[in-house]
Amino acid sequence: MNSKEIRKRFLDFFERKQHEIVPSAPLVIHNDPTLMFTNAGMNQFKDFFLGNADPSSKRVADTQKCLRVSGKHNDLEEVGLDTYHHTMFEMLGNWSFGDYFKKEAIQWAWELLTEEFQLPKDRLYASVFGGDEEDDMPLDQEALDFWKAILPEERIVYGNKKDNFWEMGETGPCGPCSEIHIDLRPQEEVDQIPGKDLVNMDHPQVVEIWNLVFMQFNRMANGSLVKLPAQHVDTGMGFERLAMAIQQKTSNYDTDVFTPLINAIAQKANVTYGNEEKTDIALRVISDHIRAIAFTIADGQLPSNNKAGYVIRRILRRAVRYGYTFLNFKEPFLFELVEVLAEQFDGVFSELTSQKDFVAKVIREEESSFLRTLDKGLNKLEVIKKQVESTTKMIDGSTAFELYDTYGFPYDLTSLIARENGLSVDEEGFKKEMEVQKNRSKKDAATAKGDWIEVKIIDEVQFLGYDAVTAIAQISRYREVEEKGKTLYHIVLDQTPFYAESGGQVGDTGYLADGDEKISIIDTKKENNLIIHHANKLPSNLEAHFDAVVNVTKRRLTENNHSATHLLHAALREVLGEHVQQKGSLVNEKILRFDFSHFARMTDEEILAVEKIVNSKIRANITLDEQRNVPIEEAKKLGAMALFGEKYGDFVRVITFDKNYSVELCGGTHVPATGNIGQFKIVSEGSVAAGVRRIEALTAESAENFNLKQAAILQQVNELLNNPKDPVKAIEALVKEKLDLTKEIEEVNVEKSKQQKINLQQKIESTNGLNVLIQQAELPNAEALKKIAFEFKNEVENLILIIAANIADKPQVAVMISDNLIETYDLHAGNMVRELAKEIKGGGGGQPFFATAGGKDLKGLPQVVAKAKELIKSVTSH
Ligand code: SER
Question: Residue 93: CB within 6 Å of ligand 1?
Answer without folding.
Answer: yes
